[in-house]
Amino acid sequence: MSDHDxxxxxxxxxxxxxxxxxxxxxxxxxxxxxxxxxxxxxxxRYVTIQGQRSRFFSIITDVELRAVNRDIPWSLPxxxxxxxxxVMAGTATFGSLHVVPYLKVGPTADxxxxxxxxxxxxxAEVREAxxxxxxxxxxxxxxxxxxxxxxxxxxxKVCLNYxxxxxxxxxxxxxxxxxxxxxxxxxxxxxxxxxxAQREAEKRVVNLVFDMHNEYGWKGTRExxxxxxxxxxxxxxxxxxxFTLDAESSRRRQVATDAVVExxxxxxxxxxxxxxxxxxxxxxxxxxxxxxxxxxFGRQWIEKTLDxxxxxxxxxxxxxxxxxxxxxxxxxxxxxxxxERLGFMRPHSxxxxxxxxLNYLQSGKNVVLEFGRHGDxxxxxVLVANLLTRRIHERYxxxxxxxxxDRAQEPIHLVITIEEAHKFLNxxxxxxxxxxxxxxxxxxxxxxxxxxxxRPSGIDSEVMSQIGTKITCLLDNESDVDRVLEGVAEKRELxxxxxxxxxxxxxxxxxxAVPMPVVVRTEEYGSEESYGRFADRPFRERLEEIYSEx
Amino acid sequence: xxxxxxxxxxxxxxAADIASFTAQTLELEGAPPLGSLxxxxxxxxxxxxxxxxxxxxGRRPAAHLSGETNLESFLDSNPHLRHLLRTTFKxxxxxxxxxxxLHHYLPPSATPIFAPVRLCPQEEVARFSQSLDFLKxxxxxxxxSDEVAAACLRLASAAHPxxxxxxxxxxxxxxxxxxxxxxxxxxxxxxxxx
Lengths: 550, 194
Prior knowledge:
The structure holds two protein chains of two kinds. By secondary structure, chain A is of the alpha/beta class. Chain A is built from 21 helices and 23 strands. A twelve-stranded mixed beta sheet of chain A has the order 9-8-23-22-21-10-20-19-11-18-14-15. Chain A is elongated. Chain B is an alpha+beta fold. Chain B is built from seven helices and seven strands, in the order ββββααβββααααα.
């Protein structure tokens, strides 16, 4: 059949081509129509494939120049004028797309998308996905969906499923400067907003954010580093409390804080030292030495260890009995001295920080803990995050067990946000830190994580496999990409997509909270309009309802 | 070829098989151009692929020029020569009609002997070349097939309002057919480039 007199009569403007080959395991090859230019295609975009009975939603993962005969392109240059090029396009030479089918929708209008377990037949038509298609898959913003961004070249919104997002640990990854903080802020604000809108207590969540660089509490730096944006407290003044470890820094930044957190030496346990091994540069034996010292001195072990005089006969005998070598002891003491210099450490803290934080969390308030100037000190960050989380988790465990069988008594679901997650979740320490345990036990005790990290290759692969939804900005280190995509069926395909994200405001999202992987331009954040989206409206509406009922 | 009246008879079939026929012209110089579309009753459509002038006795004509430089006046002054010579042209069958339908594949039977042959008018050329499936028949013909196909497309393009679009579409069909023979393909493309 010639098509010169009816060029587009059988095709629609959004048609891209036809399925020619492929498999469910490795994706499908699409032969691009001769009227379509490969230059208009971008990996990461959505296409729909119209099978005989079902429609398949797929993502473009590769674009290729093909020729039916290997020699044709090589025989051409001498005649490579416009005419020859036009003739060859779509016949002897053509563009091809590699697409991966993810979801299948039945023929009826109300059919729900389900994972694709087969592929469309040969020569099924491939089209660009329409706005309605995308809306149908990712849902519209409502009580159980929140907006994260828009697909490339589309105006519709991509929503994450709030329930599914909250019920697993999640991760935000990307090399530095790609907008992780920005994304995490949107995610946190959305979680708070959706939680406030829930009527059933068991669907609510509270956040505890270990805010390394003071980005989430009162205000944060605008993406790109110029200017400021409102952070959580300004958006949800009633449901967010800002705690600080560095009152002076908070004052200087004019941040109204709800409490100052101090940590007593008597709250630090040898397990907390264990995870600091790397950052304090301790030897294994020095870490081991902490345990007998704690057994001997009890809760005051740090102070007493620092005061201990190894030249004293009695003490020397003790050290020998416990086979603590002099160098290990010195190494440990040097490490403990480092802790002593941290501004928020006290010999004994009158306030019970853990209880204060827990009280806020239990009353449904989100807590952002600012590190002030200590944010640059990774030792301080790891110590505090680990110490507080361990105790909070312990309390959660007790409460959860006490509430066994009575869902109303269960503690409110807690999401803990940590940055530089590889410091807590690397294979060497993950078995010792509470974070590794939380990641592995999923939401058994109503606690999950939101990990933010720029070096996901440093995170233990077992922990990584437990991360439900991954929001990934550009990563260019091969091992980081591999770790993020570990265990994903379409790893090879998504790798290409991930490597070609723009370095800002674009993220690949895949996992538990989205029905299929999606590349988004992240939602605008920083204008009054964008703040309006997070307005505490549902909460206010509920209050009004309560009053009108009364 | 436009000198001919649209449906005027230009020759008569003198030999035929399913895929080709040979016709003798009524006029000694009446052979249609290479690549032009002709038809016989049926109708069977064919593309001219060769032409041949020879002695009817099977002898080789001897050169007779005696001072004339003009071929026309030479033949006028030797009127018997027109009766001793004949012109035949060979064609490749490119399709056939069946009622209102046109088929671009071989007819069920060979062209009848002595059937009159007409040159197709432009409108019919345009209608026949709507589909380019006949190119496969042209390309598989024995001799000069590439030249015949190129000539046919050049002539047919004149019958279409958008000449370039037609040639591009034809080129695409050739590219599909000759995917394994890039050199043949590029040679034909050079011959039909608008």
